[in-house]
Structures are given as structure tokens and as C-alpha cells.
Amino acid sequence: MTIARKQQVSVDATPYYHCISRCVRRSFLCGFDPLTNRNYEHRREWVERKLYSLAQIYCIDICAYAIMSNHYHLVVHINRDKALALSDHEVVARWQHDHQLPVLIVRWLARELRTEAEIDACKSIIDMWRDRLWSLSWFMKEINFAISCQANKEDDCKGHFWEGRFRSQALLDDQALIAAMAYVDLNPLRAGVAETPESSDFTSIQARLQALGRQQEIAPCLHPFIRNPTNLDLDGIPMRLMDYIELVDWTARQYREDKASLCSTMPSILQRLNINRENWLEACAQLERKRCTVIGCLRNSAALKHALNRQRINLFRLDS
After folding, report:
1. What angle do CA 308, 290, 184 make, to 5 degrees?
2. pLDDT at 81
3. What does the DSSP assignment read for the chain?
């Protein structure tokens, strides 16, 4: 039975989520279709461009992404505090980037409202938009609707382009966040369409590495890594970028050499995050296959169950 989205997403428990959207009947989103001899590679740019555009509008940060032939992955950070701190004018400015403003809001911007009823109605609309700016459902809806419209127009057809709703997995802690990001960034390697992380086209790891090549530590439109997780003034992923790159590279070598269970050395970041070796590699290889809706350490799952008012959750444990 399908679980309602509000019973899967709780920002109070965790702001981090792994999302997956697949094409209906596993048809081609991007890449080359050998059955029809048609090339849809250009659609990867559609998705990436839309992701970057929405990242400037929504208060949802993109931690990792991978755009594959018939699906895409996202790891996102829901920044509710940022949305709530926006002024009403900032909310309207963000919303009008991709949406037509109703006449009432246009009149409000021009300071033409005269009655309390009009002002209250205007305030209600802006509050609704503010809530949408940190809504994971609205963020994913915007991406999928835009891509489906473009694809259906190009294919000269109608109907569903996506397999219903997107799937989401709650990431309870730093261990789960980094495991999900590595899983997403290494998707092309596991699929055999790339040899190295840096050659994995349309992935966040490639974007971050290219930014480093341009002597930029922060890739545009991606949630940044921060060096000191105790610094409350910084908003980002609580680890060093170079530690993450080293970890992704090490994990990729295990896949290519098929020696994951035999490896006797661990990078220091694994020890610091208290990640179990076998669970880490299983997560980076089979995060979707487990059909879990929550990822993290057991000790952190109680808060999510309380926030969602649920007795049980389908947890993929990363601790021992």
C-alpha cells in the first residue's frame, strides 16, 4: 500500500532526502534507444538545467544528482528556515521566475490594494507560496512536469511520462547522507556507462570536480561542503570536499576491482563517521533494492518515528 508523502517526509526529523524518478515502462529519458534508433541524449541537459534553475528559486539545496537513461537521482536538503526567513517580496520574486503572478499580487506589488480583505487574500497567497518553496513534493512536481511536457511535445504524444510519484528515502544522519550521495554519484559506474567519477556525465561529482579544475571549491547551484561542522554560521554538508572525493574514489575502486569484502584498509573518514564497512558498501551498491524509506543509524530512527507518528519504519541501517 502506498504511503502518503506527509508520512514519509518530516523536516523536524531530518532535512535530507534521497529521491528517485523513473520513466513510465522504463522508456528512455535520455541516451540512445536501440529499438527506435533515436538519440535522446540532449534530454539530460533539460533535467540538469531545470534542476539548477529550481535550485535558485526553491529553498531546497541539491547535494547530489545523477541523470541516467530512464531515471534520475537527487539528494536534497530542505532548507525550511531559509524559506521562513524570506520577506514577502522575496517570496514573490522567487515565485514569479517560473510562474505567472495573479492580478491581485501584481496590484499588491504596485501598492494598489485598498481593502483589508484584499490584503489578507494577498497574504494568504504569499504564505502558500512560501510553504511551497520548501516543499519536496512541489520541487519534484516542477521538475517532472516540465520534462514530461518537453518530452511529450518532442515525441508528439500525450500521457504519462513518469512512473507515478517519485520515491523518497529519509536520510537520518551524516552517515546516511554521505552514503546516499556516493550511491548517486557512482550510479553511472555501476551501470557501466562511465569508467571514473570524473567521466560520469551529468552527475554532481563531475560538476564538483570540474569546479575544482577551475579553482572553485564550490560548484554553482550545488549545496557546498563545509570544513567545520561545528560552525553554525555555515550552511552546507558537514565534511570536507576533499574527504568526500577521496571516499567516492575509494568506493569506486572497490566496485571496479570487485574486492569490496576483501579490502583491509579504510579511509579515515569512515572511522570518523562510525560507518560499518560492509553496510557502507552495501548501501552504495544496493540503496534502492532494499526498498527502504529511511536510511541511517538505529539510534537516530526514534525521532523520525515520533515526528511521523508511526510505530515502525523500513530502516536501512548503516551502523553495526
Report:
1. 90
2. 95
3. -PPPGGGT--TTT-SEEEEEEEBGGG--SSSEETTTTEE-TTHHHHHHHHHHHHHHHSSEEEEEEEE-SSEEEEEEEE-HHHHHHS-HHHHHHHHTTTSPPPHHHHHHHTT---SHHHHHHHHHHHHHHHHHTT-HHHHHHHHHHHHHHHHHHHHT--S--B-SSPEEEEE-SHHHHHHHHHHHHTHHHHHTS-SSGGG-TTBHHHHHHHHHHTT-SS-TTSPPB-S-TT-TT--SBSS-HHHHHHHHHHHHHHHHHT-GGG-----HHHHHTT--HHHHHHHHHHTTTTT-SEEE-GGGHHHHHHHHT-S---EEE---
Longest dimension (CA), the chain: 74
Predicted confidence (pLDDT) per residue in 120-147, tens digit: 999 999 999 999 999 999 999 999 999 9
**Cell numbers standing for residue 220:** 554553482
pLDDT in tens, 7-44: 678 899 999 999 999 988 667 788 777 777 888 889 99
Residue-level pLDDT at 255: 57
Q: What are the b/e assignments for 51-78, b being 16+ CB within 10 Å?
A: bebbbebbbbbbbbbbbbbbbbbbbbbb
CB distance 186 to 29 below 8 Å: no
